[in-house]
């Protein structure tokens, strides 16, 4: 078995930009991704930034792919990694087609969507919002005739807009009815608080107006108590914070949903059930870092709410406490693709630093770390308001651990 | 209200989990093993956060820094011949 310098798991923005750094310094690199196309979740992204420019994920990923290919990077697509084995002084990455050996491993597996189970969610025609995004923007397949989005958050608002741009008919966005799993996704107050953070992206004057004042709790309370019956429109699509989807109905596939009115605390108001005919439902339960492989290789984890759940402990240089194992991108916390791309650069340079004795690289790592923070500060969408605190906590845990 | 499925691979419902928790008064891990919630084809990738929430809310355990339900390879479904290395060097 050939010994490579690094195996990079995940060909998204983090994995690709790390590969570019490693190849620039002529390391032997294998990039593995289970999707047939490189680019990761970047492929599905399309949105207008507040400055009027469009962020086109396909273009952005093509830039990275082109650069990686110019550097003759070995990218293996449609290959699934199912195990990372730690041997005495190297790693063996097990895939469904082969075993790949390397001195170091970068785990850049991104995030997965949390399911938000509501009755009927296993019917054909129900999908996660991310699946709808991939079908629409990557495969260019229409998800259905008319649908509804269950779950109101940063991700679902952005993707609902993408579906709309693609000509998909959406009835509205509404909350999931409260149950043990949906918790704060069903609480209008909690959802409102989070929505305030994306309000600046909305062309709706109402929401922009609201966002200036909604930082005060009493304003949010008033807004929820007098929330318009028809919802607040964002790009002409109603967003309901006082209506929830209680059940998805159908025999062999989705035929309708049952919508109810809810109080500002999310309690269902009796006798408000009505049926809305739809042929697909997108459930948006949010994202969580996909850390399976980091867990398998023995990385210690920390539960960190600001970062989106359980994340492998790591430092700003993207090192984990396990010698030779690095992480980058959404596995380290839910943030934008731009942040992931910069983190990938850091991870790539850190690997170069560890494997070569090139003196200039140490400085480059520091500069790349500064870029990550700068990109974070400039991000238009912040998935969690306490992202900086979350990052500080995880770095502190790393220092504590390696003492 | 129809009973909501939490783990779709193994078709474990919320009621199944609640009943098992009541009957055996057990930890989240034991509840997983008894009901097979999160142990299906997807390896828990779809339902892991949901199963975690249900288990901790039923058992009253706090979310800890450890991943609540242990992750074991293989983390993707694969055929026995692939696992056995028939095609590997």
Question: Your description of this structure?
Answer:
The complex is a heterodimer of chains A (403) and B (89). Chain A has 403 residues and is an alpha/beta fold. Chain A has 2 domains: 227 residues, FAD/NAD(P)-binding domain; 158 residues, FAD/NAD(P)-binding domain. Helices cover 33% and strands 26% of the residues of chain A. In chain A, the strands form 5 sheets. In chain A, strands 10, 11, 12, 13, 14, 15, 16 and 17 form an 8-stranded mixed beta sheet that branches. In chain A, strands 1, 2, 5, 6, 7, 8 and 21 form a 7-stranded mixed beta sheet that branches. In chain A, strand 14 and strand 15 form a beta hairpin. The longest helix of chain A is centred in the last third of the chain and has 20 residues. Chain A is elongated, with a radius of gyration of 22 Å. About 1% of the residues of chain A have low confidence. Chain B has 89 residues and is mostly helical. Chain B has one domain. Helices cover 39% and strands 6% of the residues of chain B. Chain B has 4 helices and 2 strands. Chain B has a two-stranded antiparallel sheet. In chain B, helix 1 crosses helix 2, helix 1 packs parallel to helix 3 and helix 2 crosses helix 3. The interface between A and B is large, with 41 and 38 residues.
Overview in brief:
Chain A is an alpha/beta fold and 403 residues long. Chain A contains eleven helices and 21 strands.
Name the average pLDDT of chain A. 89
Q: In DSSP terms, counting alpha (H) and pi (I) runs of 4 or more, how many helices of chain B?
A: 4
What is the number of independent domains of chain B? Answer: 1
Largest sheet of chain B: 2 strands, antiparallel
Strand order across the biggest sheet of chain B? 1-2
User: What Rg of chain A do the Cα atoms give?
Assistant: 22 Å
CATH class of the largest domain in chain A: Alpha Beta
The number of distinct structural domains of chain A comes to 2
Mean pLDDT of chain B: 81
Per DSSP E runs of 2 or more residues, the count of β-strands of chain B stands at 2
Distance separating the two termini of chain A: 35 Å
């Amino acid at each position: 078995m050939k010994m490579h310098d690094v195996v990079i798991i995940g060909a998204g923005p983090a994995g690709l930009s790390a590969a570019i750094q490693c190849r620039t310094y002529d390391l032997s690199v294998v990039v593995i991704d289970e999707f047939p196309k490189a680019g990761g979740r970047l492929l599905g992204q399309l949105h207008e930034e507040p400055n009027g420019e469009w962020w086109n994920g396909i273009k952005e990923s093509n830039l990275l792919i082109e650069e990686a290919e110019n550097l003759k990077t070995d990218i293996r697509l449609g290959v699934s990694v199912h195990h990372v084995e730690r041997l005495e002084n190297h790693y063996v990455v097990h895939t469904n087609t082969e075993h790949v050996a390397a001195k170091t491993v970068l785990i850049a597996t991104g995030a997965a969507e949390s399911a938000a189970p509501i009755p009927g969610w296993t019917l054909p025609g129900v999908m996660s919002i991310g699946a709808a995004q991939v079908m629409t923007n990557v495969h260019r397949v229409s998800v259905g005739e008319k649908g509804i989005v269950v779950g109101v958050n940063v991700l679902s608002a952005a993707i609902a807009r993408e579906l709309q741009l693609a000509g998909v008919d959406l009835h509205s966005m509404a909350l999931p009815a409260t149950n043990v799993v949906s918790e704060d996704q069903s609480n209008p107050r909690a959802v409102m608080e989070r929505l305030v953070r994306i309000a600046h992206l909305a062309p709706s004057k109402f929401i922009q107006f609201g966002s200036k004042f909604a930082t005060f709790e009493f304003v949010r309370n008033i807004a929820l108590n007098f929330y318009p019956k028809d919802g607040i429109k964002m790009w002409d699509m109603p967003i309901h914070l006082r209506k929830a989807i209680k059940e998805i109905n159908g025999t062999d596939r989705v035929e309708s949903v049952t919508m109810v009115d809810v109080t500002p605390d999310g309690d269902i108001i009796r006798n408000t059930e009505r049926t809305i005919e739809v042929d697909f439902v997108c459930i948006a339960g949010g994202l969580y870092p996909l850390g399976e492989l980091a867990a398998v290789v023995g990385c210690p984890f920390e539960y960190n709410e600001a970062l989106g759940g359980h994340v492998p402990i790591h430092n700003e240089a993207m090192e984990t406490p396990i010698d030779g194992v690095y992480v980058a991108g959404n596995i380290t916390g839910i943030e934008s693709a731009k942040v992931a791309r910069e983190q990938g650069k850091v991870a790539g340079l850190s690997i170069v630093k560890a494997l070569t004795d090139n003196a200039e690289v140490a400085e480059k790592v520091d500069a790349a770390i500064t870029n990550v923070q700068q990109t974070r500060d400039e991000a238009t969408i912040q998935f969690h308001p306490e992202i900086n605190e979350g990052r500080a906590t995880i770095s502190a845990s790393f220092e504590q651990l390696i003492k | 209200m129809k009973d909501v499925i939490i783990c779709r691979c193994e078709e474990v419902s919320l009621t199944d989990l609640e009943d098992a928790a009541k009957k055996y008064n057990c930890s989240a891990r034991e509840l997983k093993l008894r009901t097979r919630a999160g142990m299906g084809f997807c390896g828990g990738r779809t339902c892991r956060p949901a199963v975690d929430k249900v288990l901790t809310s039923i058992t009253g355990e706090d979310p800890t820094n450890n991943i609540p339900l242990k992750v074991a390879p293989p983390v993707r479904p694969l055929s026995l011949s692939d696992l056995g290395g028939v095609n590997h060097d």
